[in-house]
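Posting this for the archive.
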Amino acid sequence: MRKKRSKKGLLAKRRRAGYGFVAHWIIGLVLFFAYPLVSSIWYSFNRVKVEPGNISTEFVGMEYFRKILAEDPNYLNHVRDSLGTIFYSLPVIIALSLILAVLLNQKFRGRTVFRTIFFLPIIMSGSVVMNLLNSEFVTMPLFTSGTSGSGIIDYTAIIRSLNVPGLLGNILAFLLSHTISLVWSCGVQTILFLAGLQSIPDSLYEVSKIEGANKWEEFWWITVPSLRHIISLVLIYTMIELFTDMKNKVVSTAYGLMVAQNFGESSAMLWFYFVIVLAVIGTVYVLYNRYCVKKWE
């Protein structure tokens, strides 16, 4: 009996210690996330007026939802474009991140230097230095279609000079215009894949060599199945990152309305968008677990 009590007492102490470590996070979550989240739901059904020292609300029901869905000519198009971005960006980012992680995980001279060079732009992208250097040249896109008048390389002129057929030329132009932004979005994903690759036991690859497997078979039968949970994490992270990017028209439009203190309509835009995003993420996650994870386990 004493042993059982001592075990229960030890578990209780560990449990209290765990709650103590996360208590500050829970308090911050309630004060700085949960309350604004509930408030935004309430604002989407109200006309909000910001007055000195007070925020007054007038209940209008589904007025703002009807406005963005039936009257706003751009909102549904922005939602469609946002969903379309996922279908071509997500697989490209996942593939590029995995390829880069595999390359950076190889043993070669100067590996640390190459890793540093690759991750340096990612570290600097949100730094104060880049904000201070926010000049026209720094923010200028690398490629331009030739009609916007900005950019360093006019890829449409290059494609025309190569006499590429129209449909293929359009596809190449589309891929080139998004190449830099997609590569730039692979940083965190590459780090996650790199951590997952380093956790795979070397004994698995040694056994595969004894069995006569080549590198391609090792990749698909050892590397990818071993990264199944990392891939799941990267999928969710990448989708959230793409859906919440400030370049996203839905997010930027809602932000503009919020700056103009139109909190009701901006909240309605974001909550309708959030429901769609949640459905897409849930569908992708379920399909991935059903058709990939179960197959690899």
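Residues 2-43 form the longest helix (42 residues). The beta strands are 46-51, 54-59, 143-144, 153-154.
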